[in-house]
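New here. Your pick:
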Amino acid sequence: MKKTVLIFLTDQYADWEVSYVAAELQAPHSEYQVKTVTLDGKPVSSIGGFKVLPNYSLAETKTIDFHMLILPGGNTWRQPETVPVKELVAHCVANNIPVAAICDATVFLGRYGFLEGQKHTSNTLEYLKEGAPIYTGEEDYIDAQSVRDGNLITANGTAPLEFAQAILKLLAVREDEKIDRWYRFFKEGSIVSSR
């Protein structure tokens, strides 16, 4: 039986930020499967217009076994309706379940203290501080495309490949060398696929 990775989708989520990692997690060689979650279990639409019928509602995640939570960015993370997601993140942190956030989802983590004491990144430090007024983790901020610190992965919104690479390595979906080759193929094109 495949292990489950949850991707939490808000309305107006950034579809391109999780497309690479979702495809690799669903690949035949992977021991993982992707399941999607929305607040109420109802369909949501991405910024790109993709409508998704989720597998679970937020409430249903309390009854399932999963091995990672992925939070793509989007236009809704600063809205009050996303506040309940902090309980799911807190559950993950308390149970050593990896959490990966990209773009504005990093701001969501910053708003609720989940970045404190962890190396992390976001779109920029200023962007993070503006969106998360209680954030005080400047000393742990790294200006990089993607940062992993233990079970936390954060990424800049322009880094879906680096985000995917970090997730695939954390979950050991393939050997690191194969993941790096996959990354170079999508980053640089087929010209480097034989390296």
User: Anything to note?
Assistant: The domain at 3-192 is CATH 3.40.50.880 (Rossmann fold). The mean pLDDT is 96.
